[in-house]
Write a structure and sequence with these properties.
about 270 residues, alpha+beta, N-terminal domain of MutM-like DNA repair proteins, Helicase, Ruva Protein, domain 3, 2 domains, two-stranded antiparallel ribbon, 11 strands, DNA-binding
DNA sequence: CCCGGAACCTGAAGGC
DNA sequence: TGCCTTCAGGTTCCGG
């Protein structure tokens, strides 16, 4: 499931294949994946547009197009963007046909992902909070974000309007690294704990990018390869297995309907 | 503003 | 073996 490190990897590896290419057309096999505009406006608006840039914001991918506007993709749970020249893989929901004969296959078994063509990306991205790897993301900012929130710290970390790009896996990993129980009310954390969490978040995300993301389920890089970040997970998706620090079995509890993995001894 | 729950989807996994 | 139920989770929307 693509979170910030996975989307960053996709952006990095897709970029050399698509920038300065022209989109000949787009095929939608599942029109409901298109959020805006209408299919007719989309088809006419996307054809013969040159891709002048590719960037990531939170978990969104933004294809900048010449003449203004951009194509924004969200992979949600199960989406991948695969570059290829052959027939589309199973579960392909859309194909972006490029002018050199290659294609971007939007593969998405669960049909949660979406595409949208907009004039100004701000209209979509304005709801997002700070980028956790930007220099502007400081322990003070994190502390202030937690200040009025009594919801479980795990739930607050997943709030994209505060911090953009953290998902279930990396929230669990960062909380373990910082030694903080996921159910703790966010506004109950001390300054020291918030500082530890801030540092843990950056560390966990940066290392996962170095490992090209985590292929726990259906995540593939644009060339079809998997990432290796999941093999370094210490608690995420490791229910029942021993904590790497103390050997206590990793527990799994639901927080806001999301499986949350943690060590009951190391995380107070 | 803050919080929690349902809805959107379908393949995989588990129960009987 | 096979049918049925449950689970997985990012985001949006809605009600309290």
């Amino acid at each position: 499931m693509p979170e910030l490190p996975e989307v960053e990897t996709i952006k990095n590896e897709l970029l050399p294949h698509v920038v300065w290419r022209t989109i000949k057309s787009v095929t939608l096999y599942w029109e409901r994946m298109l959020r805006q505009p209408s299919p007719a406006e989309f088809y006419s608006g996307i054809s013969e547009r040159k891709i002048t840039g590719l960037s990531r914001r939170g978990k969104y991918l933004v294809f900048k197009l010449d003449g203004g506007g951009c194509l924004i993709a969200h992979l949600k749970m199960s989406g991948s963007l695969l570059i290829g020249r052959d027939s589309p893989p199973e579960y392909t929901r859309a194909i972006i046909h490029l002018d050199d004969g290659s294609n971007i296959f939007f593969r998405d078994p669960r049909k949660f992902g979406n595409l949208q063509l907009v004039k100004d990306s701000v209209t979509v991205l304005c709801k997002l909070g700070i980028e956790p790897l930007s220099p502007d993301f400081t322990p003070e900012i994190l502390y202030d974000s937690f200040n009025k929130r009594k919801a479980p710290v795990k739930a607050v970390l997943l709030d994209q309007s505060l911090i953009a790009g953290i998902g279930n896996m990396y929230a669990d990993e960062a909380l373990f690294t910082a030694g903080i129980h996921p159910s703790r009310p966010a506004n109950n954390l001390s300054r020291t704990e918030v500082k530890r969490l801030h540092s843990a978040l950056r560390d966990v995300l940066q290392k996962a990018i170095g490992n090209k993301g985590a292929s726990v389920n259906t995540y593939f890089r644009p060339g079809g390869e998997q990432g290796t970040a999941h093999s370094h997970f210490r608690v995420a998706h490791r229910g029942g297995k021993p904590c790497p620090a103390c050997g206590t079995p990793i527990q799994r509890i639901p927080i806001r309907h999301r499986g949350s993995y943690f060590c009951p001894k190391c995380q107070a």
